[in-house]
Amino acid sequence: MPIEIQKSFEINQTVEEVWDFLTTPERVVECLPAAKLTEKVDDRNFRGEMGIRLGPIGVTFEGIIHFDKLDVENREVSMHGEGKDARGSGSVKMQMHSKLRPTDDGGTHVEVSQSVSLAGRLASFGRGGIIQNVADFMFGRFTDCMTQKLEG
Fold it and tell me: Rounded to whole angstroms, how far apart are CA atoms 84 and 49?
């Protein structure tokens, strides 16, 4: 069963600057704890890995992210990804949609919706709210880092 995650935040930077940041995987990965890009396959496909801790289990997922939609005019981006734990603990699939809107003060409001599905031994952690806690933590770390990079 997928875990649905809805988040939003505002940043004191133009929509154009935020769009550029969020659609450049090399910049995004700098703000994701324990993540790195390993290969740029083409302009829409990227390979990488990401380590996370789910309760007592630490896993590193290796996988691919694909940009499904990059709508510059409406400032909407959709992507999906999937990865497998090298030790066989399980796999993850993710779909994410982000929408940017300018704020009255010249900043940007960002809405993010995600659907995350875990398989294998890791799936049991979704039932106890651990995935939501990890998502909240990572989202907070990401937005703090992005704010620092864009607002200086």
Answer: 9
Is the pTM higher than 0.85? The answer reads yes
User: What token pair was written down for 125?
Assistant: 């952690």
- Report the alpha-carbon distance of residue 150 to residue 76 in Å, rounded: 19
Query: Cα Rg for the chain, rounded, in angstroms?
Result: 15
- Local structure of residue 13 (DSSP, 8 states): S
Q: Is 47 helix (H, G, I), strand (E, B) or coil?
A: strand
**Which among 7, 32, 3 is positioned nearest to 129, based on CA atoms?**
3
Domain definitions of the chain by residue range: 3-151
Q: What is the pLDDT of residues 119-146, one digit of tens each?
A: 887 777 655 567 777 778 888 899 999 9
* Topology of the domain covering 3-151: Alpha-D-Glucose-1,6-Bisphosphate; Chain A, domain 4 (3.30.530)
